[in-house]
Amino acid sequence: MVDYHIHTEHSIDASGTVSQYCDQAVKIGLKEICFTNHCELDPERNDSFIRFNGKREPFSRAGLLKLQSEIFDACERYRRDGLTVKFGIEVGYYMGIERKLKEIIQDIDLDFMIGAIHCLDHICIDSSRECHSYFNEHDAQEYIEQYYDSAASLIRSGMFDSLAHIDVYKKYGRDYYGQEIARVPHHVMNDVFRMQKESHIALEINTAGMRFMNEFYPAPQLMRMARAQGIKMITIGSDSHNPGDLGKDLDLGTQYLKSFGFDIEIFGKNEILIRSIPSIMGVSIEFDTAKDIIDIFKDNVSEIKEKMELEDLEVIKDIISLFACRRSIKAGDKITLERAELILKELLGLEEPFTCPHGRPTIIILNEEYIEELFKRDYR
Ligand SMILES: [Zn+2]
Ligand SMILES: [Zn+2]
User: Fold this and answer.
1) Which of 306, 266, 298, 294 is nearest to 34 (CA)?
2) Amino acid 266: pLDDT
């Protein structure tokens, strides 16, 4: 099981060190965790901080680099415990943030970027202290529309791997607006999920909703719409703000996911589970060859994953092409004369013998003139 949404003491609303979280992860048997501390960049608000040793400082690239080295260090230390540790952030998105965000994260080796809508009109709707000043000015439908406008813009920015707690607006909205808050227009949701699918942004099953209001984010009716829109990329996280909440309800969240017919398993970013290796053109594959195929998958995982998402049948052809080139005879390899003759015979029997699947030539002609030129000689 993986937990891909975690806040340490570096977030000003959370507690627990990186090591305390890692120890807890090992204790409860998590295979992989991704730290995703807050990155709030709204200049009209006063919550853009990162905290080290109990002292908050303005959120900056330098702070993020310091956090990165702390997490990379844990990654090395906990490897022997069988725990994979990843480095991510949860960005509080508002329209127009993109440039500033790019400057801050440039060249930082982030494994995972969560985008979240925490604020509307620069008011935190995820805060019991602040939300009422927003609610008093808007009815439920305006609230929901403005929220999803912002979410659509988050998706369009193309900067994020996942959209966090998609219906977090219900957290305090339910008490204020009652059942009105659950009335999300179908066309709005369908547009959001369609965009999300096309942009390869994962839907997050966030189990914090269970702790606050006994309901996951997203609510069941949203899960049905996501399924209908063909969402396939899913991530899961506890959104824990202290080590005690790490991994909470992840099993339940997985069951919840499956109950809507999502026939998938959850993995960390850039991982693929290969259940079986098919025979290619009726020929079963040897172990070494299978290992080569897995290497090819590993080297090209993003590209292959993207193509599989698009259900592009060309992907099989591409994989075979990659495979063919990887297994070819390379400079310095020794082969017998018989094998060379056999290869030439097979090659000339093909429909397109003169190029490899990537268009590179398989045969070149070295004529006499060319060889003479190489030796700077003229025999004539
Ligand atoms: Zn959040
Ligand atoms: Zn969070």
Assistant:
1) 266
2) 56
> How many Å lie between the centroid of ligand 2 and the Cα of residue 60?
19
Ligand nearest to the CA of 237: 2
Please give the C-alpha separations between residue 208 and each of 69, 131, 218, in angstroms, as whole numbers.
Answer: 28, 18, 11
Q: Residues 291-316: what's their mean pLDDT? A: 62
pTM: 0.73
| Separation of alpha carbons 66 and 86, rounded Å | 15
Calculate how far, in angstroms, residue 123's C-alpha sits from the geometric centre of ligand 1.
14
* Distance from residue 92's CA to the centre of ligand 1 (Å): 7
Check residues 207 and 109 and name the one with the higher pLDDT: 207
Q: How far is the CA of 181 from the centre of ligand 2 (A)?
A: 21
**Contact (CB, 8 A) for 207 and 216:** yes
Domains located in the chain, CATH noted? 2-259 (3.20.20.140), 272-327 (no CATH), 334-380 (3.30.1540.20)
Q: For residues 162-172, give the mean pLDDT.
A: 97
Q: What is the pLDDT of residue 347?
A: 86
User: Regarding predicted confidence, which is higher, 97 or 315?
Assistant: 97
Tokens of 260: 């809507």
CA of 191 to the centre of ligand 2 (A): 24
